[in-house]
Amino acid sequence: MASTGKVGRNDPCTCGSGKKYKLCCARKEGTLSPIAWIAIVGVAAAAMAALVLSFTTTTSVSATTCPPGQVWAMDHGHCH
Fold first, then answer.
1. What's CA 76's distance to the chain center, in Å?
2. Which end of the chain is more exposed for a tag (fewer CB within 10 A), N or C?
């Protein structure tokens, strides 16, 4: 080990595997677990779906009922 108490790349790994640190635990630092990746991808997919649906959702003309004497204006999205 280095005199600073820090593990060097070529020092034996601290996990006891007998491998050099650079070939063992150094590769694991800063990586996400598979469950974390699934969670990130799931949240991103849900956000994308919500974004797409927010642009594609429209009011159905057949489901809209205007008060008597008014008509539905497609370009404005409300009764006139």
1. 35
2. C
| pTM given for the model | 0.41
Residues 9, 22 contacting (CB under 8 angstroms)? yes
Per-residue pLDDT of the chain (80 residues; tens, 9 = 90+): 445 678 788 888 888 888 888 888 877 777 788 899 999 999 999 999 999 888 876 655 455 688 888 888 888 788 88
Handedness of CA 33, 36, 42, 47 (dihedral sign): negative
2 Cβ contact partners less than 8 Å away, ≥ 6 residues apart: 8, 11
For the chain, how are helix, strand and coil distributed in percent, rounded to 5?
35, 10, 55
